[in-house]
Amino acid sequence: xxxxxxxxxxxxxxxxxxxxxxxxxxxxxxxxxxxxxxxxxxxxxxxxxxxxxxxxxxxxxxxxxxxxxxxxxxxxxxxxxxxxxxxxxxxxxxxxxxxxxxxxxxxxxxxxxxxxxxxxxxxxxxxxxxxxxxxxxxxxxxxxxxxxxxxxxxxxxxxxxxxxxxxxxxxxxxxxxxxxxxxxxxxxxxxxx
Length: 193
What we know:
This protein is an alpha+beta fold. Helix content is 28%, strand content 24%. The chain has one domain. A 6-stranded mixed β-sheet has the order 1-2-3-4-10-9, sandwiched between helices. Helix 3 (95-113) links the parallel strand 3 (80-85) and strand 4 (118-125). The radius of gyration is 16 Å and the shape is globular.
């Protein structure tokens, strides 16, 4: 299955305004509808699926997959996992949003290490603070530089002060325009094994 092609065609349709995205729930719903209409009926397309369903151990940074596509739950090499972040209509660019996205990346690395070869992260936003700004700090500065790698800590005002995520790989991305104000990027996780 050519998941890259399907995801790129989805965003082409969003850009052409045949699909409207206004928050993360709309992104998830519209993406599911698009995928279901463009793949074989033999595939399951499910949202917020707990990893326990796939009989994985409990050593993951997250417990639920935003979107999973599969034929048989034991055929990991044919499975596709997509994690979504869509901070739209926010007042501020939030470091915690970036941190949660980094958790998604780590989760995808962990799933790939279990044998899932098609792992994607999608980030879509309309807030300019995610593209550039004066605020320092590793989370936002690395994100604005479009290169994420290494160790990240949750912000000090977090309820869990010691939370640290270590990424195995380096992730670079380029923003793609949907409209003048809304941009997205798509990362395929690879070579984490």
